[in-house]
Amino acid sequence: MATGMFSGSGSRKRNGSAIDPSVEEQLNEIREDIAQLMAVLADRGAAASRDAKAKARGARDQAETDLQGLLESGEQMLSDLRGRYADTEKEVRRTIREHPLATLGTAAVIGLIAAALLRR
Fold this sequence. Notes:
The chain is mainly α. The chain has helices spanning 21-98, 100-119.
């Protein structure tokens, strides 16, 4: 019969008290180390998850702030353009009323130039 580590000898029985106490202690230490390692990994995973969520929240908040600023800026630009358009329209109407012949002459010259360019 084979003797040694892989033999069916009674010294390897788990249910009995034949297991070497130092091996049993080492197994318990390994189990404890594995449990501690799992706890550390779980803690680090939870911390990484919290950090990722915080960064995502920060990025979302920054994007919302930037979008709000962009919308406000766009609304201000539109308001400015409307004001400029209204001022320009008033100025054109005033000029036409004050100088109707000059306005007709200018329109005729512009029309002739456009016609000349379109014939080419």
